[in-house]
Specification:
about 160 residues, alpha+beta, five-stranded antiparallel β-sheet
Length: about 160
């Protein structure tokens, strides 16, 4: 059962199995589906290390494991989104940490159907309301894509 305040402690709740967005636990982090899905398939890699705010906070072996997990998540998102939508273009990968003070990496699928003035711009140029519009909130409609990303993560683990 998800912890009622899981958004306030994404890493702790993931470690305790209470974060409902977790797709898979990887070697150095958690692959999670994004809370918003205005770009379907948006996912995030969370560090498994509480207190790590930036990549350089991890010892080099954990840092390399985290980056390997990122490679796996980005490829899984690419494969799943390409199969789900022929307008899939690419993924954008960003480590920002300006708002949430813990190490996490955004994996944004990008699509040809995005407005022409945004398709070649950073995701953050999309309208602010996309982040709060209930129509874009993660929900049951996203279960097929969520399952496809998880399946690709599994396939890449054995590849």
């Amino acid at each position: 059962m998800p912890h009622p305040d899981w958004r306030n402690d994404r890493i702790g709740t993931a470690l305790r199995g209470e974060n409902p967005t977790v797709l898979r636990r990887l070697s150095a982090g958690f692959a999670v589906i994004g809370d918003v899905q205005f770009l379907p398939g948006y996912s995030v890699l969370l560090t498994e290390q509480p207190g790590a705010e930036r990549l350089s906070d991890l010892p080099r072996p954990r840092r390399l494991a985290y980056l390997s997990d990122l490679d796996r998540l980005a490829e899984a998102v690419e494969r799943a989104c390409r199969a789900a939508d022929p307008a899939f273009r690419r993924v954008n990968i960003e480590i920002l940490g300006n708002k949430d003070p813990f190490l996490h990496t955004h994996v944004w699928p990008r699509y040809d159907w995005e407005p022409a003035h945004l398709v070649q711009r950073p995701v953050w140029d999309h309208p602010r309301e996309n982040w709060s519009d209930p129509h874009h909130a993660l929900g049951p409609a996203h279960d097929p894509l969520r399952a496809a990303i998880a399946a690709e993560l599994d396939a890449l683990a054995v590849a």
